[in-house]
Model the fold of this input.
Amino acid sequence: MIDHAAYLAEVNETNPFLRHNHMQAVYVDEERAVVQAQMSPELRNTMGGVHAGLMFSMAEIAAGLLARSDGSKQVTLDTTFRYLRNSSTDGIVEAEAVYIKRGRNITMCRVFVREQGSDKNLAEGEFNFYNIS
Done:
C-alpha cells in the first residue's frame, strides 16, 4: 500500500512542469485524484480565458497521478479530450480524475475540469495508461 500523503509531496516537489505552470497536486487516494491551479495572467489565453493547454495538462496530470497511485509505473497511451466552455475566473481551476477501469496492463481514467466549487465542466476527457512496471 502506498502512502498517499508522501506520494503527493513527492509529486509536488519533484515535478518541475507542475511548478512552472502553477499547478499543485492536492488530493489522491485509491479512487480519485485532484490537481489545482490558481488562475493568473500567464495561465490565460489571448482572450482572457483559461488556456486550453492548461486544462489539458491539468487533466493528464490528475489522471496520471491516479493511475500511479498504487505505486506502479504508467505512461500515457492515448486520450480523448473535449473543451465544453471557458472561464475567466480569477479563482482556482481543478481537474478531478476517477477510474473507468483499472486492469493489469491498461488503466482508464475519466477527468473533469471545473472551476473550484462548480458542477459545470469546462472540459472532460478520458486518459488511458499502459503499465510499464
